[in-house]
Amino acid sequence: MAKQPPPGTGAKPGLHPRNPHRGRYDIPALLAVCPELAPFLRPNPSGEPTVDFTDPAAVRTLNRALLASVYGVRHWDLPPGYLCPPVPGRADYIHHLADLLATDGLPPRGPATRVLDVGVGAGAIYPLLGHRSYGWSFLGTDIDPGALASSRAILAANPDLEGAIQLRLQKDPARILAGVLLPGETFAASLCNPPFHGSPAEAREGTQRKWRNLGRPGAPVLNFGGRAGELWCEGGEVAFLSRLIEESAAAPQACRWFTSLLSKSSNLPPIQAALRKARAPHVRILEMAQGQKRSRIVAWSFQEPGR
């Protein structure tokens, strides 16, 4: 189970109360399990050590240190160019999902809660966090054989995880659920981090705009990495999520709750229209925040929520 942050480290505003990353990073604990983080530390204006988040290698190494220190995951790494998901934000999704699945206010625990990760990526980050935090079991799907090979290598390096996390290739990149799920296969929930942008140019501009807003116009593009299918698709997150909603309506019993991140509030109206068209009787919008960043989880179900 994930460790809680030490007291007195200061809280990151907006993160879920159970998120162990609400406090400042425990640098000595991170260095104890990941000494290779040391070269990436720089003093902040207060003289405290921090990580340069404009450096892709620093971000990847911080992830490795957090996963080892807080979640007991060893030997985590990514091939060059793949998306390096920030652990605190991904953990927040897991904890909000646990609240969505809760019974009498208690999040479910144990492998009987099976979760589908649509687009598991090269780092298997959601399955790692979900299993370590709540003991859930996972099926991760992806259209990229290289991403699945990387995730399999992570599981092989952590043998206690292999039985809890399965991986499966979606052979048809035009489909999301269809063709990759087995007949009669069911899950407590699905989760998804869709490609947010509609083109490579839009992805680059989004990253450049972020760094300009932070006063770092010279920062490198794609500091968190990411390949085409991870960052953009034609039509962006609205097109992807609309397709997921359409496919979920064709397999309404596959998940008690279908869920996905939605980055832009301006994209919410067309997604709500797609949910009405799919006749999803139960829809929830779960707001999330990390500092100045705001996002949301869209959740929908074709079943009675208590089932």
TrEMBL record:
Keywords: Cytoplasm, Methyltransferase, rRNA processing, S-adenosyl-L-methionine, Transferase. GO terms for molecular function: 23S rRNA (adenine(1618)-N(6))-methyltransferase activity. GO terms for cellular component: cytoplasm. InterPro entries: METTL16/RlmF, rRNA_lsu_MeTfrase_F, SAM-dependent_MTases_sf. GO terms for biological process: rRNA base methylation. It comes from the Bacteria. Residues 1-21 are annotated as: Disordered. The keyword S-adenosyl-L-methionine applies. PANTHER family: RNA N6-ADENOSINE-METHYLTRANSFERASE METTL16, SAM-DEPENDENT METHYLTRANSFERASE. NCBIfam families: PRK11727.1. This is Ribosomal RNA large subunit methyltransferase F. The lineage of its organism: Bacteria, Pseudomonadati, Acidobacteriota, Holophagae, Holophagales.
